[in-house]
Amino acid sequence: MQKAETMSQARQVLEQMIGRIGQSHFAIIPGVVYEDLGAKPDGERGGAGATGIDARVIQGRILVTQVEEGSPAAAQGVRPGWIISRVDGREMAPVIAKVAQTYLNSTQRELMLHHAVQARISGPVGGTRQLEFLDGTDKIVQKTISLAAPPGELTIFGLLPPTPVWIHARKLEGGIQYVAFNLFLDPARLMTAFGDAVASAGPSAGFIIDLRGNPGGLGIMANGIAGWFIDKPNQQLGVMQTRQGPLKFVVNPRLPANRGPLAMLVDGTSASTSEIFAGGLQALGRARIFGSRTAGAALPSLIDQLPNGDAFQHANANYVSESGRTLEGAGVTPDVEVIPTREALLAGRDPVLDAAVKWIGAQK
Amino acid sequence: MRKYLAALALLPWLGLAADPTLPKGEAILDQFIEATGGKAAYEKIHTEISTGSFDLTGKGIHGAVSSFKAAPNKIYVAVELAGIGKIEDGSNGEIAWNRSALQGPRIKDGDEKAAALREATFNEPLHWRKLYKSAETVAIENIDDKPCYKVILTPLEGKPETQFFDRQSHLLVKFAMTLSTPMGEVAVESRLTDYRKDGELLTPHRLEQSAMGQQFVITIDTVKWNDEIPKSRFDVPADVQALLPKK
Questions:
Q1: Three-class SS string for A230-291?
Q2: CB contact under 8 A, A188 and B86
Q3: Closest-CA distance of chain A to residue B104, Å
Q4: Cα–Cα distance, B158 to B112 (Å, whole number)
Q5: Do A224 and B82 touch (CB under 8 A)?
Q6: Residue-range domain boundaries for chain A
């Protein structure tokens, strides 16, 4: 650290130090992201411009799993099931091989692979990325895709960088209510929207909460959302163990609660509060979990400002789910493991969602 | 100022016995009433509205606080935080409740309810004899290099609370308690400073509190006595009422 001549070099040393801890929720957030909190995340700093592609590394290939409606990628005709082979001319296979090797024995491997891919296909809003795909017929397709502002409403919370938050709700076949949201943040808006979805579904409707790609946020929001699905008092999702003592994640019922079958969709990119939420309701026997194991990155943390204007995120507690399992390094194991296949994605299906819909249909 | 601690309760019992060489606890509490304006001044007021700001120290979380109290035992406190939304606490004298966008509504019970009802008691300092079984002075301790009487108050229901009164000014400068909540018991320490005259009463305008390793500051900007407060201000919200046992 003494040899560092610039703040950037000092930051790199700090990042190496906290990296050696080998646990989630330790990070240095550069002060530059706070310089203009009122501004849109314009990408030069945060790289928030997005193509509209969500991708996962499955069996060593980068599969497009979702293309956001109305996004630049959708406009270019990109389809789920395509394989991303190059970004801006750079072959992606060695990139993901390196990340996969680094996190070979970590539950966070899928999360880190996702970060690595998304970081490379995002960038400054208004910029472009040159992507090479293998389409559904394995033909090489080149696309120049512009980077648009990410969906959602910009939210400022404490020392977190300004972050877009979105929630989508829609009805599926059989009256099943489907809700997805990208972060457990902005509770005043997100909880209201979630409550509206619960109310419109009715108390006995089947419900699906999609936590794939949701990296967490405010831990306490897990209890708050769980309240719409628990009608008895004194139920808890788990316990946060702090130096000062245990804090039980107790659920306050929001009556009338939904009593219908509840499915949650998760994968290796579901982290932190997503795991607290899914793991807790699974342990209570209230939800059935579909997908693949979550990231096992579930340490509650705080963010403090450093003297140079950077912020330091650091874990301040352990978290034990109601099942008695520590989530950090273990994650939530689904009740029904479903891994998306390229064939299913190319056919326009979402195998994880399909499995949940099928299960809910069988409960009636 | 205690009203902002709607969720706070007491310090774990320290096992200290009253020190007969020190002034009795009840004398210190009576001195506090005199130092802050006197019994007659307290008895002239029947409502209190105060507003201010909230800052979670070093975490970039800020907001506004407002509090409404009415005799004999009604209270409503709202803390509106940027990025979180509104957190409300209230009591109509019988039911004590809390609700927020974060966690939804709930009804307080047990020690937590007892502490909330004590806080809801209007002009609480005048009524401490009805709210506590005992007040024992156990020591003199320095707070900011000033000697203070340490008084342990044992409520009728719940665990003891510890209060520190400046030996010279007789003002309450610190208190410590354990917050009883469904999430668990949390030790809380609070410092009261910046006493100012509002009408005939002296009130603290700054509260610094620490709990679970975090600190926050509440700064009071305005205090109004005897302004009319609509009765509906203290109504139990519908989503809280939905939690009440069906009769």
A1: CCCCCEEEEEEEECCEEEEEEECCCCCCCCCCEEEEECCCCCCHHHHHHHHHHHCCCEEEEE
A2: yes
A3: 6
A4: 8
A5: no
A6: 36-146, 153-363
DSSP reduced 3-state for A86 = strand
Q: What is the pLDDT of residues B57-108, one digit of tens each?
A: 888 889 999 999 999 999 999 999 988 899 999 999 999 999 998 899 999 9
Segment B175-224, tens digit of pLDDT: 999 988 898 998 999 999 999 999 999 999 999 999 988 899 999 999 99
List, as ranges, residues 232-261 from A with C-beta within 8 Å of B.
233-234, 242-250, 252-256
Residue B20 has pLDDT above 80, yes or no: no
Q: Do A158 and B85 touch (CB under 8 A)?
A: no
Whole-number Cα distances in Å, A360 to A105, A172, A264, A357: 34, 11, 11, 5
Domain covering A153-363 assigned CATH 3.40.640.10 in the classification: no
Q: Shortest CA distance to B214 belongs to which of A317, A68, A42, A285?
A: A317
The string of DSSP codes covering B16-58 is PPP-TTSPPHHHHHHHHHHHTT-HHHHHT--EEEEEEEEEETT
Pairing label, strands A287-291, A262-266:
parallel
Pick the range with the lowest mean pLDDT from A35-39, A204-208, B53-57, B84-88. Answer: A35-39
Q: How far apart are CA A26 and CA A227, in angstroms?
A: 29
* Inter-chain CB pairs, A–B, below 8 Å: 90
Residue B112 CA to residue B124 CA, distance in Å, equals 17
Chain B residue at shortest CA distance from A218: B102
Q: Residues in chain A, how many?
A: 364
The CATH homologous superfamily to which domain B2-226 belongs is Lipoprotein localisation LolA/LolB/LppX (2.50.20.10)
Query: What is the complex's ipTM, to 2 decimals?
Result: 0.84
3-state secondary structure of A62: strand
CA distance A44 to chain B (A): 24
Measured between beta carbons, the chain A residues lying within 8 angstroms of B239 are 254-255
Write down the pTM of the prediction.
0.88
The CATH number of A36-146, from 2.60.40.200, 2.60.40.10, 3.40.50.1980, 2.30.42.10, is 2.30.42.10
Whether B176 contacts B26, CB under 8 Å:
no
Sign of CA dihedral A289, A291, A295, A296: positive
Q: What backbone phi and psi angles, to 5 degrees, belong to A299?
A: -85, 125
Distance from CA of A188 to the nearest CA of B (A): 5
Fold agreement between A36-146 and A153-363: no
Residue-level length of chain B = 247
Torsion of CA A257, B99, A283, A111, to 10 degrees: 110
